[in-house]
Amino acid sequence: MTKPLNVGMIGYGFMGRAHSNAYCQVNHFFDVPFRPVLKAACARNVEKLKAFAETWGYESIETDWRKLVERRDIDLVDICVPNNLHAEIALAAAQAGKMILCEKPLAMNAAEGQKMVEAVEKAGVANMVWYNYRRVPAVSLAKRLIDEGRLGRIFHYRAQFLQDWTINPEVPQGGTALWRLDVHAAGSGVTGDLLAHCIDTAMWLNGPITQVCAMTETFVKQRQHALTGKIEPVGIDDACAFLARYANGSLGVFESTRYARGHKALYTFEINGEHASLAWNLHDLHRLAYFDHRDEGKLRGWRSIHVTDHGGEHPYMDKWWVPGLQIGYEHTFIHQLADFLTALGKGELAEPTFRTALQTQKVCDAVLESARTRQWVEVAY
Ligand SMILES: NC(=O)c1ccc[n+]([C@@H]2O[C@H](COP(=O)([O-])OP(=O)(O)OC[C@H]3O[C@@H](n4cnc5c(N)ncnc54)[C@H](O)[C@@H]3O)[C@@H](O)[C@H]2O)c1
Fold first, then answer.
1. How far, in Å, is the centroid of ligand 1 from the Cα of 16?
2. Per-residue pLDDT for 311 more than 90?
3. Of 16, 44, 63, 210, which is most buried with the most CB atoms under 10 A?
4. Ligand 1, atom nearest to 130 Cα
5. Strand order across the beta sheet in which 251-257 lies
6. How far is the CA of 124 from the centre of ligand 1 (A)?
7. Per 3-state DSSP, what percentage of the chain is helix, strand, and coil (rounded to 5)?
8. Is the dihedral of CA 169, 175, 176, 177 positive or negative?
9. Ligand 1 centroid vs 204 CA: distance in angstroms?
């Protein structure tokens, strides 16, 4: 028997849709002890909110997130709004005793994130941050292979997240989706938006990053603000590249930009170990590339593992179709939700918790500080 879990969703944009889909689908595919009930959706534009609530089957709407957070019939608050609202909502939701699922990055900066961690831990409420790329089956398989020791000592970790949608200087800042270009709403540019994903995956796979040396650039210095209509300075980093040292002695190279013409959302990583290497690419997300030096010489080479097998060999895949058939981006949210609900049933927390996501926030802060000061920076854990 599944128990109902009443969800209050804040935000109906990109992530509001991705998460709503996960709440609708999770019980169809995963045997989890809870059944999400779409109790209420919240945003400020009533017409758009009503349309969203109708599309996804939310029972009610609220135009003020404070009312949603205080409602007695809400068990779990899902924060799918721009980064500058995460902390305020999370603190209020923790105070009200709600479970909290928060979009990434956890906060605008580590100081804010620290308060969020303290609030959820003091309130004793379940919490998780949607670093969803961990739940791509090929990425989860990479984690298993590393944990089994197949790579041996790890020497190198390199990751990129490349886009090209802000090259045109006429693209405004502020408002739906474009809040990412407004430093007051986003906190930072590609560092918090894209590299945060790379850093979360990197530390999950290869342990803590201890030191960073970064450079950032803002290629378009002024943009019209969509909400004020005024031309305003651009305060975010358009591009960021950094070097990193890991606690395990390996070296990291990370790069992200929204100015890589031809790339829409190319997240890639490669890990080189003593015995073997791994590589993954979001545009071919169901494949994991693997090279093992211990293979017989005449057969040695990069294998392309189609991560679709059943029987527990390939994470999550036995819950979907038949071997050989693929799944996509939206499934990562369903997997993460399934893990959260399973953990909740056992009285445990699913990763990454707010506390884990704070580590990523601290690396982001160190990256931005390094770019500002033009020096290596120790990550302040
Ligand atoms: N995990 C991922 O891969 C991923 C991908 C995209 C975005 N995100 C994160 O998700 C969050 C939301 O991003 P998005 O792409 O969905 O943005 P979006 O612009 O598509 O949607 C933002 C939503 O927030 C609502 N909103 C804004 N201010 C509000 C307020 N005061 N009260 C209530 N609602 C308000 C807007 O109406 C809109 O529905 C961000 O933190 C972002 O970093 C994560």
1. 7
2. no
3. 16
4. 1
5. 303-306, 287-292, 276-281, 266-273, 154-162, 251-257, 239-246, 209-217, 377-378
6. 26
7. 40, 25, 35
8. positive
9. 25
- Map out the domains of the chain with their CATH numbers: 3-132 (3.40.50.720), 134-328+335-351+358-373 (3.30.360.10)
Name the residue at shortest CA distance from atom 7 of ligand 1. Answer: 15
12 close to 48: Cβ distance less than 8 angstroms: yes
How does residue 381 score in pLDDT terms, banded at 50, 70 and 90? confident
DSSP state of 350: P
Question: Which of 103, 135, 179, 335 to mutate for ligand 1's pocket (most ligand atoms within 8 Å of CB)?
Answer: 103
Question: What residue owns the CA closest to ligand 1's atom 40?
Answer: 82
Q: Under 8 Å CB-to-CB from 155, ≥6 apart: which residues?
A: 250, 251, 272, 273, 274
Cα–Cα distances in Å, from 25 out to 12, 36, 57, 126, 320? 17, 10, 13, 21, 12
Q: According to the model, what pLDDT value does residue 200 have?
A: 99
- Please return the burial class of 32, using the count of CB atoms within 10 Å of its CB with bins 0-12, 13-18 and 19+: buried
Own/partner long-range contacts of 20-26 (Cβ < 8 Å, ≥24 apart) = 20/56, 20/58, 21/56, 21/330, 21/333, 21/334, 22/330, 22/333, 22/334, 22/336, 22/337, 23/337, 24/56, 24/57, 25/334, 26/334, 26/337, 26/338, 26/341
Say what the pTM is. Answer: 0.98
Distance CA 40, CA 42 (A): 7
Q: Rounded distance, CA 381 to CA 354, Å?
A: 14
Q: What is the pLDDT of residue 1?
A: 83
Which residues lie with the beta carbon below 6 Å from any ligand 1 atom? 10-16, 42-44, 65, 80-83, 85, 103-104, 130, 132, 176-177, 179, 193
